[in-house]
Amino acid sequence: MRLHDFVKGTPDGCRVQQTRRGVCTVLAIAAVGASVSMAPSASPLPAAATIIESVHGTHAGNRTTVILRGDGQLTPANVEETPERPRRLVLDFAGVGASASAATQTAIDSPLAKTVRVAVSSRQPLVTRVVIELVEEATYHIERGADPAHELSVVFERAQTASTVMIAPLDGPASEPEPAISLD
Fold first, then answer.
1. Closest CA to 54 of 139, 122, 147
2. Nearest-angstrom CA–CA distance, 162 and 164
3. Is the pLDDT of residue 28 over 50?
4. Is the dihedral of CA 125, 126, 129, 130 positive or negative?
5. CA distance 67 to 69
6. Burial of 32 from C-beta contacts in 10 A (0-12 / 13-18 / 19+)
7. N or C: where does the chain have the smaller number of CB atoms within 10 Å of the terminal CB?
8. Rounded distance, CA 104 to CA 114, Å?
């Protein structure tokens, strides 16, 4: 999925969420009571990142979060899953390098994500690839971090189990529908 258009024109409250294996959707998230204006604002956009500075992971409750920190706003040019096993999420960052401390393998050791690898995959044009190994039952979404001008978070959660809804039949005969209301 190409995310170039997603990041260029969306407010900070937007995120990408996996809907089924390999297919992503863009979701706009607004806080209750907050209004989202699509009109251009006077505040400038954060500068684009040129370096991934660090990678770290946290696990709390049923969520694992991998936080990528850059010297500016990190925007993946491509997000996809690899078709082969083990299951891996791949994020490509065009025009972004990796610092020595970020260009390594980071063990996450959570029930949902195992490792994160960061490496320059192309020097001309410059592209840095982040590969996160995840378990089969994990779902994920990508959102701006606590510092949206510098952090990008990949949040992993367990897939929700399907549930069955049972509807009890009506007692007695079904009632007739109400007559149509004329707008004349």
1. 147
2. 7
3. no
4. negative
5. 6
6. exposed
7. C
8. 14
* pLDDT band at residue 10 using 50, 70 and 90 as cut-offs: very low
**Taking every pair of C-alpha atoms in the chain, what is the biggest distance, in angstroms?**
74
- Is the separation of the CB atoms in 155 and 144 below 8 Å? no
CA distance 164 to 149: 42
Tell the residue number behind the tokens 């989202």, with chain if given: 36
Contact 149, 73 (CB under 8 A): yes
- CA-nearest of 64, 59, 77 to 139 is 64
Phi then psi for residue 4, to 5 deg, are -55, -50
Q: How far apart are CA 135 and CA 138, in angstroms?
A: 6
Mean pLDDT for the stretch of residues 1-24: 43
For tokens 């956009």, the residue is 45
Provide the CB-side half-sphere exposure for 116 (13 A, CA).
27
The helix (H) or strand (E) run that includes residue 157 is strand 151-158
Token reading at 86: 């083990």
Mean pLDDT of 30-58: 69
